[in-house]
Structure formats: C-alpha cells, structure tokens
Design goal:
Elements (H helix, E strand, L loop, with lengths): L3 H13 L6 H11 L8 H4 L1 H5 L5 H16 L5 E2 L2 E2 H10 L4 H5 L7 H9 L4 H13 L3 H7 L7 E5 L2 E5 L12 E5 L3 H6 L6 H9 L10 H13 L7 H7 L7 H5 L3 H10 L2 H7 L4 H4 L17 H12 L4 H8 L3 H10 L5
Antiparallel strand pairs: 1-2, 3-4, 4-5
Length: 343
C-alpha cells in the first residue's frame, strides 16, 4: 500500500470499524508498508520460506483491514490483479510468529498472574497490571481511558466502581464501562502513565516465564475465565458487555439494560477477583483497611502456604524459597508477615 491519500483513507476506515484512531491504526499502516516484496497472493503464504521470518500479528490484522477496506470502501473485488478472496486465503495459510502463539494461552492460574505482577519493578506498571486484570479491558483502550483525569468515577453497584468509556467504542469493540472493585478508586485517581502504551505492554510481556508467558492479551483471557468459571460465575452476556463485546442476541441488543446487568454481575464477583489477585500496599497506595475485604485474603493454597513457612523456619532464604517453589518474592514475604515472621 503506497500513497498518502490511500493511507489517510485507510486510517479513517480503521477508526470506523473497531479501532481507535491514532497509534494502533498508524502502526497497522506502517507494518503493512514494511512487508518485503509482496506482489502475488502466494507471496503471503510463502513469506517465511522467502524471507526467513513470519508475517507479524500486526501485519496480519492490518492486511485483513486493508482487504476489507478495498472491498467495502473502494468497492474493489481485486487487488494487484488477483481476487481479494485469494489474497485472504493465502494470508490464512501464512505461518504465525512466536508472539501470536504466546498470546494463545488461556489457562493461566491466579497464582501465575500474581507472580507475574510481583516480578514487575515499576510501581505504576504494577498498578496498571492490576487495573487491567480486574477490568478485562483492552490494553489500548484502558491506556486511552486513564489519560483523562477528568473521567468521572461512578458507583453502579455495592462494592463496584466504573468509568464511562463509550467514547472509545467503535465497530465491534463495544466498550461502555470499565469495572473495578471500589478499593481501586484511589489508585485510579492517583495513577499516571509511567511510559508509552508500547513500553507498558513490553514490561507486562516480560513478567511471565518462558514456558508460561503473561501479556496484556492473557490478562484479558484470565479475567474472562474468572467471570465464567467456578462456583461464582455470571452469564456470558454480562461478561461480554464487561469486556466490551457486541451483544450476540436480538434481546441483548435491543431490550436488555446491559450496563445494569454488567454492574450487578461484576458486584457478585468482586470478592472472587480480590481473593484471586490480592492488591498490594503499593497498588492501593494506602494501607489495607482493618477488617476490610483485603484482611486475611490470600490466594496461596494452605498446603503451599505451610510449605513456605516451614522452609523459612528451616533456615532457607526468601530467594531460595522463591527459586525452588517458583513463587513470587512479594507473595512469600506477605505470607511470612501474616504469620508474624520478619523476613
């Protein structure tokens, strides 16, 4: 794709079909233009063989947007002399890169999520990690939402706060509100982005392990599974609205008060989220309230907790314990403090 005019038209199309204007759409455009020697549809399916590398996930999504743009806005059924259906078919055959494969993990445990957060050294990124996990929001949209300090914090249900983000909604990305436990209100009010959206994403992406990576996509999947599984769970309609997906049924689209359904559903899960991802003092910016929801909450199973205590009493250092059990350092320290030990 070349030419300033076609590029501007493409960016406008992106803004109207499920993507916020700005960095994300521009990145798609730039990534497409960086593709090496794609002239024939088969150049996509043979890309790795020809160039020794995979088409990136961003290039793949950008190309799909481009083909849709040609078809719906330019009313073209061909590109470069070949049918668009053939271009799409060859793009589907093209191999995925490692980055896309890592994003497929859907079964991260709460302990893995906690340990990943413990590995992040920047306090503000820890805050963001927690807000992203609790809300299940898309990273690019939460980043945009938290730029605006004037967003009013709403209290739609007991124990729940939310911010209105309808201005971020476009296409199939049907954001209405981002929900959080009420204890996160001071965090949202105090939070300021420490880095760019790309750098925050990279810091979070480096928080997992090689075989069990954690990233902004897997946090969203963890949130969704938390809402739909276990003894406390909510209906898919509520979970989809919380995460900003368009409703699937006529009733949900035209009759249901989805904001109310989502708020009540999230309220029923607040304790579950907090027990799974206990906010640290760093995250809260203030000490946990005495007798409040966080007191005594612990995400570590009793057997593992006892093992940590016994290992420490036997003379092992915190570093040795975290290495042997593959546990987060802060999690181990918190457990020891709760037992009256002084690590």
């Amino acid at each position: 794709m070349s030419g300033d005019i076609i590029g501007k038209e493409y960016l406008t199309y992106c803004s109207k079909t499920g993507m916020s204007v700005g960095r994300t759409a521009s990145d798609y455009l730039v990534s497409i233009r960086r593709l090496d020697d794609v002239v024939l549809p088969t150049d996509l399916s043979d890309y790795k063989a020809q160039h020794g590398k995979n088409i990136t996930d961003k290039q793949r999504k950008g190309l799909l947007k481009f083909f849709n743009f040609l078809e719906t806005k330019k009313m073209q059924s061909n590109y470069n002399g070949y049918p668009l259906v053939v271009w799409r078919a060859n793009l589907r055959i093209a191999e995925y890169g490692d980055e896309r494969k890592e994003g497929r993990i859907k079964d991260l445990t709460s302990e893995e999520i906690n340990n990943a957060r413990d590995r992040i050294s920047n306090d503000a990124v820890k805050d963001y990690f927690t807000l992203l996990s609790y809300s299940g929001a898309r990273h690019s949209h939460l980043f945009e939402a938290l730029k605006d300090k004037r967003r009013e914090i709403l209290h739609p249900a007991p124990g729940v706060i939310c911010i209105d983000v309808k201005d971020l909604s476009a296409g199939t990305k049907n954001e209405s509100r981002f929900y959080f436990p009420e204890e996160m209100e001071p965090v949202i009010k105090a939070y300021e982005h420490p880095y760019s959206a790309d750098k925050i994403q990279k810091v979070i992406g480096a928080s997992g392990t090689e075989d069990r990576p954690v990233n902004v996509a897997s946090l969203r999947k963890w949130n969704y599974n938390m809402m739909l599984t276990g003894s406390k769970r909510i209906e898919e309609t509520a979970a989809d609205h919380i995460q900003g997906r368009s409703p699937k049924t006529v009733g949900a689209r035209h009759y249901a008060d989805l904001d109310k359904i989502a708020a009540e559903g999230y309220a029923s899960l607040v304790d579950k989220f907090i027990a799974a991802l206990v906010p640290t003092e760093v995250t809260l910016k203030t000490k946990a309230r005495t007798g409040g929801r966080f007191t005594g909450a612990n995400k570590t199973p009793p057997e593992r907790r006892q093992q940590i205590i016994e290992m420490y009493k036997s003379g092992k250092s915190i570093t040795a314990i975290t290495k042997e059990l593959k546990a987060g350092k802060q999690s181990v320290i918190n457990i020891l403090k709760e037992e009256g030990l002084k690590p």
